[in-house]
Amino acid sequence: MKNEIVLVTGASRGIGASTALLLGSRGYFVCVNYHENAELAQNVVDKIVADGGRAVPLRADIRKEKYIVSLFKRIDKDYGIVTALVNNAGDNGGLLDCEEISVDILKSVFALNVFGVFTCIKEAVKRMKKIRRGSIVNISSESAIFGGNRLTHYAASKAAINAATKGFARELAPFNIRVNAVSPGIIDTDAHKDISQKRRQMLKHSLPMGRMGKPEEVAKTIAWLLSDDASYVSGSIISVSGAR
Ligand code: NAP
Question: Which residues pair with 5 in a beta bridge?
Fold first, then answer.
């Protein structure tokens, strides 16, 4: 493999951690971004290294432009140019009825899910254009299409990501930069840890495969989209939703 440096945002847990582990095993140098869980991020790095790979934990709050800018500068200085980016860090803001969705909540959810993603793309693209190659995968959500259940604030943020994926893919194609999205259904991560047993059972019965997806099942699609095996795939939004 060429010298590929991938930044995976929100890689301490869930889909991000599984993606970091898989990419580490496939020869990428993995920048394991996290926000609060330094120990979990270090565990991900330790597993990659134990498996013969290369990785580093990097703290940055993806809601803040200045931390994203510093994160990219640090990667430039210590490791080299990011050739692949997985915009995974995301937050659903909790289940809310229409009247409960304040502008502050919208700002907080959009700060991470939309503004953070645009800023990471901007910083990555500045660098990828210089080397005239790169691959970006945004993590969207099936809720972007159906609106979510009491998650309309979150669904709207992911709809913005679908639009960004299509728009940037067209704009950046002449620079040999591909932009795609993976759109997960319900995946068994901490995002669902606070739901009641009753709601969990109801969810399970509503899922065509009778189970939630596993983070590793999403990671495999992300890794494929990043790779040269997907060299003519750009502007695609791929569902990983078990037929839901
Ligand atoms: P998760 O298990 O809740 O993990 C969230 C990750 O994001 C953690 O690594 C966390 O870091 C990081 N993070 C949170 N706030 C951050 C911030 N301000 N700056 C940087 N990193 C931050 O999440 P997940 O369920 O794997 O979801 C990953 C992505 O898939 C999200 O974009 C989510 O919207 C999307 N998705 C998930 C599902 C699902 O059912 N799980 C479905 C559709 C789409 P710390 O550990 O350091 O806090």
Answer: 29
